[in-house]
Amino acid sequence: MKNTKVKALLASTDFLKEIQVSGWVRSFRSNRFIALNDGSTIHNIQCVVDFENTPEALLKRITTGASVKINGTLVESQGKGQTVEVQVTKVTILGDADPEEVKRTILQPKRHTLEFLREQAHLRARTNTFGAIMRVRSALSFAIHQYFQQNGFYYVNTPIITGSDAEGAGEMFRVSTLDEKNIPLTEDGQVDYKQDFFGKETNLTVSGQLEAETYAMGMGQVYTFGPTFRAENSNTSRHLAEFWMIEPEVAFCELDGNMDLAEDFIKSVLKYVMETCPDDIEFLENRLIQEDKSKPQAERSTMTLREKLNFVIDNNFKRVSYTEAIEILRNSKPNKKKKFKYLIEEWGADLQSEHERYLVEKHFECPVILFDYPANIKAFYMRMNEDGKTVRAMDVLFPGIGEIAGGSQREERLEVLQERIKEMGIEEEELWWYLDLRKFGTVPHSGFGLGLERLVLFATGMGNIRDAIPFPRTPLNAEF
Ligand code: 4AD
Ligand code: MG
């Protein structure tokens, strides 16, 4: 007999039907009521065991954490909070879970701290919180592909191991280093790939943008969606050393079109999760309400999770230039001390996350797209404005998160790009292929990158990015 998922059983009205369901025991009450979960939904299904006709030895093995296969009949439930339950005819233990051992794990049914859950990331999928988060993450990933596929974009896979540094920021994980003074050669004078595989310094990619640009310059509209790596200090609640980035790249598109795309895209995928994961979102919303109760009044959120999501979906993102933002920040009194930790002294300074969050949460009270940043704080590939000082950059800022996406219109003019590359001290030969795109049929084009985990953080209301990815990679943390 085939298993039916708990989610399908809970929605079924096929009463008296013989069914089979397999899952993990969340709890076993009064030698009678199994709360069974199979990961298909936040909800458990109640399975009622006929304990008088079940051997004592078998009952003893139905413990929290054990895996079981249950055969029985689906019936209407008399119990509170559930519409259906399973009248068990047969329990098969698939895998035992020793109650004494379970005590040291997060399977123990009680409230655990998120820190403790992180230490047992291999068991997090068995908890309600992580089941809900990861179902939302999965739905978001699907919605992301669906959005681009339905809007005429092609999915391109850009390299994971790369010889270029897209951001020019020097925050890369080394794959191989070639000592240029001591290149290993074979007897016949070729570079010996057994000693240096690529014959070139290579790293894990920090962004697929530059390679995505090459495909946009032929296929028109493309997107990447893959893992990216940054050896930056990720001891914050917003940074990971390994994260998944979505990067659309669009030919014949200027900055305004890029902003329109980012806004429409983000709204669309958030709408999708609200529609397809209502139970998980409701669970996460209640979790936040519980969490808020232990906080001082001033720190509690004024909106529920669903209100926040709807707010983003229903309201226009405010578009503000860097220069306007700096003026606002200079004239602001963010708190009782009336000061930011980092003061914006002059035009040209980079914004810190406290500034970004102030603009979004206190000043505009809605998502903000900041654009036209000073050239000197942004990457070499961004298109120079007529003023010669600012570039056509944009950052999308979200409440509780700060920067959720960043992008730009790209510099499509060969001479201007060469000039910028020189100014930034980058070797032109390193980017010969990138410059070729400007030599043969260059066009205005734009794109952005959005970190999946930051979007998951927003959609789930979680506070730490380590809880938005199954196995977070941060300094001194690669256990799994
Ligand atoms: O702003 P970033 O560095 O932009 C780029 O990499 C561009 N090449 C993107 C493009 O235009 N195609 O990164 C883009 C986004 C950020 O807005 C943030 O959401 C996420 O990637 N991000 C991180 N997420 C988690 N951990 C980190 N260490 C991240 N660094 C960036
Ligand atoms: Mg950025």
Automatic annotation (TrEMBL):
Q: Name one GO cellular component term.
A: cytoplasm
Coiled-coil regions, chain positions: none
- Any one Pfam family match given in the protein's UniProt record, by short name: tRNA_anti-codon
Q: Which GO terms describe its biological process?
A: asparaginyl-tRNA aminoacylation
The Aminoacyl-transfer RNA synthetases class-II family profile domain, residue ranges: 134-470
Instruction: Name the Enzyme Commission number(s) assigned to this protein.
Output: 6.1.1.22
Instruction: State the source organism's domain of life.
Output: Bacteria
Keywords from the UniProt entry: Aminoacyl-tRNA synthetase, ATP-binding, Cytoplasm, Ligase, Nucleotide-binding, Protein biosynthesis
Presence of keyword Protein biosynthesis: yes
| InterPro entries tied to this protein | Aa-tRNA-synt_II, aa-tRNA-synth_II, aa-tRNA-synth_II/BPL/LPL, Asn-tRNA-ligase, Asp/Asn-tRNA-synth_IIb, NA-bd_OB-fold, NA-bd_OB_tRNA
| UniProt-annotated location(s) | Cytoplasm
Q: Name one GO molecular function term.
A: ATP binding
So what does this thing catalyse? Answer: tRNA(Asn) + L-asparagine + ATP = L-asparaginyl-tRNA(Asn) + AMP + diphosphate + H(+)
The entry sums up its family as follows: Belongs to the class-II aminoacyl-tRNA synthetase family.
What is said about its interaction partners and assembly?
Homodimer.
Could you tell me what this protein is called?
A: Asparagine--tRNA ligase
Identify the coding gene.
asnS
